[in-house]
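Structure tokens please, single chain.
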Amino acid sequence: MLDSLKPISKEHSIARVTATFILAQDILKLENLIERLKIMPEFSRYQRKVIQKARKIKVNFDGTGEKNDVDSVVGFVFEEFDETGQIKNLIRVTNDIDQNRGLIIFETRKYERWDSFFFTMKNDIGAIFSTNRYYTKAINLNYVDEFRWVSNDVIPVNEIFNIESELINKKFLNSENGSILMLSQNKELNVEESTEISFNNRLKRIVINHQFGTEFKDILSNEEVLYSELLKDQFKIAHDANKEMLSDLLTDTVSARIGIN
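Here you go.
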């Protein structure tokens, strides 16, 4: 029955993995930063480099009623493509104006193994950190797992999801299209976790979106983030939490197919 369930990859179901570094301050002079990164060898494999701007409207109150467009740089994106022209990795650097903080993000859409992902992510983030003094207050790891259902039959959710899992309920299992969002916090460990599970019989898709964020007790310098075991340990905790969630959520058959069990 589950022959029609196809993970997005032959070896696993991971559609993308995103590591986010949440800074304690805005990133200044983004225009200068992107020009500096463009000539660094670490970023030569990123074929497309795009500045992101926010357009603001300034109104003159001198009676003329004239409006002037003012573009401000809020971030940039570097994109690396594979041999088929699809995005493989991307780097996004942006300022979250509402929160007065900078975000440095590494994302892969061609995930292979955890060790290779962590090595590439740390190398690219480290190159950005080498350009200035940044202070990190939190990190977040986001996994998106995806399955296709290649059949005209209704998606057999009771065979895909573990009906004993606390992450799902009967209403979800009996729906034609279902979605559940669960949030949890551990204030003692400064950890926040969210899991969104959805399936859609029209789109023939099952998507599991899992985020695991850790806020550090102390704001960390570049060296404390990159050259200690803390970063590796915290991301490994987030990585293992994703595997634990999938193992609980999916049936043994599906878990074995994607290499969880």
